TrEMBL record:
Protein family according to the UniProt entry: Belongs to the FemABX family.
PANTHER family, per database record: LIPID II:GLYCINE GLYCYLTRANSFERASE
InterPro entries: Acyl_CoA_acyltransferase (IPR016181), FEMABX (IPR003447), PG_Glycine_Bridge_Synth (IPR050644)
The name this protein goes by in its record: Peptidoglycan bridge formation protein FemAB
GO annotation terms (biological process): cell wall organization; peptidoglycan biosynthetic process; regulation of cell shape
One MF annotation (Gene Ontology) recorded for this entry: aminoacyltransferase activity
Keywords linked to the UniProt accession: Acyltransferase, Cell shape, Cell wall biogenesis/degradation, Peptidoglycan synthesis, Transferase
């Protein structure tokens, strides 16, 4: 296969994505506007007839005091990952990024490796011999994923292992939880909820919890709950301008790319969440809640409203995003895994993120710098 790679316009990039069932929101031109500390560039692959057949959003992060860059394609590029001519796609990309001054390239092939059904995850949590999700037998395996990993290694790419005790990688999550919608009615999806979820939705309804769509002006309310959540769940919160910039950038690209949902009870907002939409893929992006009045179950009510709206949009998957790989009861993230799987979500492992050092010395120096941060 003969392919030509060159920078493309935002319009070309968006037209290509619109021709697909979906693509990651991290591979849209607007995501570059969300990351002002990075330089963004859209790349396109063209076949010999001049047709655009692949695209990728590259984020370039400068190395301190040196005009060299880390090139990052989160959950991308959007190409034919199972082609026998993968080198024809990736080698021109590496050559282009090296000319741009990149010392290392990081990418996240949007390729699923295996899946665990809700029942399989529940059984794994109950199994004393299963300490991590990877220890449990998967429900299904995606053909070709293992071979693709070997091909990348032979080409010189290095897989980034999930870091930290919770199994989350430093970049995008390798393990996510997804509720399949394709071919299922809303009643089917509701039947897929576990008993606790169904009870909690009824409890919220009986208690008078109402879920409404918010707008840009409601982001400070969301943010107040988000900072409370960050303190409770022990993570570093992003600043409010990050979410305001995300809303502005994504809404400018598509008026219904990002949504905000707010769960009200007796005049107070108890929970809030953002939702992202690209084609048939819908993501629960950021969630926040207060510890007050948790007994009225605002989170279940809010998520069910979001799932209902996603189904009405024709989504083929509702994506809860990252989950922990650990199954240890002592880990505070296990409750979040239970919550997401309880909604009928499958645990899904992706191929993970991969690095290609174009300059080994600078690549190593950057690793040391990031570790010290």
């Amino acid at each position: 296969m003969t392919l030509t790679l060159r920078p493309i316009t935002r319009a070309e990039h968006l037209t290509f994505v619109a021709s697909l069932p979906s693509a990651s929101h991290l591979q849209l031109p607007s995501w570059g506007d969300v990351k002002p500390d990075w330089q963004a560039e859209s790349l396109g692959w063209f076949d010999r007839d001049g047709r655009l057949v692949g695209a990728g959003l590259v984020l370039l992060r400068p190395l301190p005091k040196v005009k060299r860059y880390l090139a990052y394609l989160p959950e991308g590029p959007v190409i034919d990952w199972h082609t026998p001519d993968l080198e024809a796609w990736l080698e021109p990309m590496l050559a282009h990024l090296k000319r741009r001054g990149a010392f290392s390239v990081k990418m996240g092939p949007p390729v699923v490796v295996r899946r665990w059904s809700p029942a399989a995850v529940k059984a794994a949590i109950a199994d004393p011999d299963a300490h991590r999700l990877r220890d449990a037998e998967a429900t299904s395996y995606e053909p070709g994923a293992g071979g693709l990993a070997e091909r990348l290694r032979r080409m010189g790419w290095r897989q980034t292992e999930p870091g930290g005790e919770d199994g989350f990688a430093a970049g995008q999550p390798r393990y996510v939880c997804q509720v399949p919608f394709a071919g299922r009615s809303l009643e089917d999806v509701h039947r897929g909820l576990n008993q606790q979820w169904r009870r909690n939705i009824k409890r919220a309804e009986k208690a008078g919890v109402t879920v409404v769509r918010g707008g840009y002006e409601d982001l400070p309310v969301f943010y107040g709950l988000y900072t409370e959540t960050a303190e409770r769940d022990r993570f570093i919160p992003r600043p409010l301008p990050y979410f305001q910039r995300m809303w502005t950038a994504l809404a400018a690209e598509h008026p219904d790319r990002m949504r905000l949902y707010l769960a009200h009870h007796e005049g107070e907002v108890l929970a809030a969440a953002t939702m992202l939409i690209v084609g048939g893929h819908v993501w629960y992006s950021y969630g926040a809640s207060t510890s007050r009045r948790r007994e009225v179950q605002p989170n279940n009510a809010m998520q069910w409203r979001m799932m209902t709206d996603a189904h009405e949009l024709g989504a083929h998957v509702y994506d809860f995003r990252g989950i922990t790989d650990t199954l240890e009861e002592s880990n505070h993230l296990l409750g979040l895994l239970r919550f997401k799987v309880g909604a009928g979500g499958e645990a899904v492992e992706y191929l993970g993120e991969w690095d290609f050092p174009l300059n080994r010395l600078l690549h190593k120096a950057f690793d040391v710098y990031m570790a010290r941060r």
